[in-house]
Amino acid sequence: MTRNGQRLLMLIDDEPAQRRLVAALAARGGWRTIFAGDAETAIATLGTQDGMRLDAILFDHWGEDADASTLIAELRARRPALPVLVVTANGSVAHAVNAMRAGATDFLVKPLAPERLLQALEAAVEGTAAGELRPLTEKIPAMLGFDEIVGSEPQFRAALAIAAKAARARVAVLIEGESGVGKEVVAEAVHAASPRARKPMLTVNCS
Fold first, then answer.
1. Is 112 exposed, middle or buried (0-12, 13-18, 19+ CB in 10 A)?
2. Is 85's pLDDT higher than 90?
3. Which residues of 64-80 are buried (b: 16+ CB within 10 A; e: fewer)?
4. Domain spans of the chain?
5. CA within 20 to 30 Å of 151's CA: 67, 79, 109, 114, which one?
6. Do the beta carbons of residue 83 and residue 122 sit within 8 Å?
7. How confident is the model at residue 169 (pLDDT cuts 50, 70, 90)?
8. Residue 137 pLDDT > 80, yes or no?
């Protein structure tokens, strides 16, 4: 914990925009955030003055699962008591299982709702995240509603408004975007807000 009473978080992420967003969300709960842009920097940071005072690590998953698992395992080997939370744009069960097997404390899916991030951090540092004893279904968040999706850019808010309007209509909806931008999360929000919400959402990977 930092000297002024704030809890200290290390975010492993190489995207400036995501760094600013997570730091702002964490600050709402009294956390100060330091950053590492890659695995090597993250490991080196553990030995610094700030690194010795860390309360938690938040790892924004990128690349192959094997690389992520290796980093998580290395972090836990060096600091066994330090919670490591994984954030990814892909909410698949396979990613969650691999992260947990490597030693992750919890698993979060983008886009991050502020209350979910803060609850996960608090649970991790208080020791209530229960690791492997917690059912995997609890580790993977339920579908987000439109009001829980975080983003302030005008184009993004406009796209959500269009999606919310489309959800109320009985029409086909096409969601386009680059890998990792949250298309599946928007699709889940459309489903949750639609007249079909009580029916199961079937996801087919056509890649």
1. buried
2. yes
3. ebeebbebbebbbeeee
4. 7-139, 146-193
5. 67
6. no
7. confident
8. no
Amino acid at 150: V
CA angle, 137 then 188 then 61, to 5°: 60
- How do residues 87-120 score in pLDDT, each as one tens digit? 887 656 667 777 877 888 888 888 788 888 999 9
Residue in this structure with the two tokens 């309360």, named with its chain if needed: 55
Best CA proximity match to 162, nearest among 149, 152, 151, 175:
175
Tokens of 193: 């807000």
Residue 136 confidence (pLDDT): 44
| Bridge pairing between strands 84-88 and 106-109 | parallel
Q: Could you give the residue ranges of the DSSP H alpha helices within 13-153? A: 16-27, 39-45, 49-52, 65-78, 93-102, 114-126, 136-139
* Other beta carbons within 10 Å of 96: 22
DSSP label at residue 201: P
Quick one: CATH architecture of 7-139?
3-Layer(aba) Sandwich (3.40)
Q: How far is CA 184 from CA 19, 116, 128, 187, in A?
A: 22, 18, 29, 5
